[in-house]
Amino acid sequence: MAQHAGNTNLERQIRSQPDELDRMLADPTVRQQVHVAAEGLHRVRRIWVVGTGTSQHAAHLGAAMLQEAGRSAHAVSSMQFVRNAPIVGPHDGVVVITHTGETAYALAARALAFQAGLQTFTICRRGLSLNDVVETVDKETSETYTVSYTTAVMVLAMIAGQMGADTITSDKLALVPGSVRNAIESSGTQGIPLPGRILSIAGAGPSAITAREGALKVREAARVLAEGNDIEFLLHGNAVPLTSQDHLLVLTTPDEDGFVEGVARAGEAEGMPVTRLPEPSPLPLLLAQIPLTARLQMLALRFAVERGQDPDTVILGHWNDPGLWSIGAPGNGG
Known about the structure:
The protein has 13 helices and nine strands. It is an alpha/beta fold. Helix 2 (17-26) packs parallel to helix 7, helix 4 (54-68) packs antiparallel against helix 9 and helix 9 packs parallel to helix 12 (285-307). The longest helix is centred in the C-terminal third of the chain and has 23 residues, at 285-307.
């Protein structure tokens, strides 16, 4: 049955983001939680930012923000942290990102860090009975997570700002909600057609992370084959099987040396339809990923509506086996 955009929880949650981001910046409880996290992380030697899926994308952006604050910060998947643990020292700190508070390996990573006596903070939804948290939003009612992602990235930005990141200042943070509102109202993706085969999204630097997150939203919401690439990886082999049946979407912020544009032109010369998507907001590059993500969320929503897909119930059939999802949880092999 065809979906109407306004009838989905996904659209409501996408459109809630400007107000939720505004609330995060002003909420005294959130500000205090951020302050406690920043103070705790100031005392550690290295910071490990841990997450699964969408939360792992947030972890990569968060690590980059903390690096801008002059800290040794590293993003790893929850499963990697638990099963193939990096060399974590007693003076390290851990930030675990888990919106639901139910993700098996994320909870195992958190438990492992606490057991090791590490300074550990969790970024999660509101209403969980966990210690040392920064809470974002209520549990999302669409399985295509959006507002929990952008608010988690905002939390990481607020922490990095308090820890001294040069470009993440209070005046720049204050511009984020309005920039997201502008991205939702005019995403710049309206003219992108459903691809005949694959939507390939690519960007440079932090925008490569956003490309992967955008591709994940397209796959989840619309069940359209999509891939997210670092623009360099695209040129170095990943573009080989692409044809005129595919669509190349390049994120052109940043493109200081013209590499992104060069790859876009190569795609056009090969007969591929190509769309260039900039982020025009007056934000530093890392913060610009938040509205840029919202633009790709709107694309995923439109594709879902055009294809008559339900973007709120994503994980079905054998993929939704509770036993599968519990592997790795504390007390269950984790």
